[in-house]
Amino acid sequence: xxxxxxxxxxxxxxxxxxxxxxxxxxxxxxxxxxxxxxxxxxxxxxxxxxxxxxxxxxxxxxxxxxxxxxxxxxxxxxxxxxxxxxxxxxxxxxxxxxxxxxxxxxxxxxxxxxxxxxxxxxxxxxxxxxxxxxxxxxxxxxxxxxxxxxxxxxxxxxxxxxxxxxxxxxxxxxxxxxxxxxxxxxxxxxxxxxxxxxxxxxxxxxxxxxxxxxxxxxxxxxxxxxxxxxxxxxxxxxxxxxxxxxxxxxxxxxxxxxxxxxxxxxxxxxxxx
Length: 273
Hints:
Helix 5 (160-170) packs antiparallel against helix 6. The chain is α+β, with helices and mostly antiparallel strands. Strands 1-8-3-6-9 form a five-stranded antiparallel sheet. Strands 2-7-4-5 form a four-stranded antiparallel sheet, with no helix packed on it. It has three domains: 9-152, Jelly Rolls, CATH 2.60.120; 159-204; 215-273, Orthogonal Bundle (Arc Repressor Mutant, subunit A), CATH 1.10.10. The protein has helices at 92-99, 120-123, 125-129, 135-152, 160-170, 175-182, 186-197, 201-214, 222-228, 234-245, 249-256, and strands spanning 15-24, 29-33, 39-44, 49-53, 56-63, 66-68, 75-79, 82-90, 110-112.
């Protein structure tokens, strides 16, 4: 772990996570990037980040500032054995405020800051990061840049009902219940949610549920994870992971945490992850 201060309070609505990383994988390979309810901005330090949609090498994109919108398929992040940089997870509101555009504009995209036509201060950030020699200085520069953009205001925030709907969907509420809560028909809700984040409410909810399971996988039996996170059963959990992540939960654990003791494989028997 690289010791850095937490995300400043003024940015926490917009920056869900800000993670400096320095990883030695030991050999070249591919890391699996899972769907998320946040928009990912990666600022690599050593080499441009090479990322594609899994199984689709023709979509490969290399950039010093890799930006990916909301998506419902896994990404393949290619590395030469080590990686250093800063990764940001931006909220849907944060994309409006910091990048000056709705998250829907980036849905399903693998792009960079130049192609996304974001504010100049952000486009200049990768080059400025490369002039700094410490993690504290790099993180400080990122925080100051984002704080200045937040103070500028960017695009107007999503309308309150849409923001509330996204929060309810993230928490696992059923689409029909969310529509009732915010006072829209399901069709109207779908139109507004897609216009804001690029995903239909049901797709956003599926991604949010996958994201929730990531926090508890390897700590509880898979059947318990399925019940806790709102899946019909363990088989449903496995089908959703295969569809969205391109692998089963156990496979993901083995890839990410080779020494984590899992409490049950995808068929229910115990296994070493």
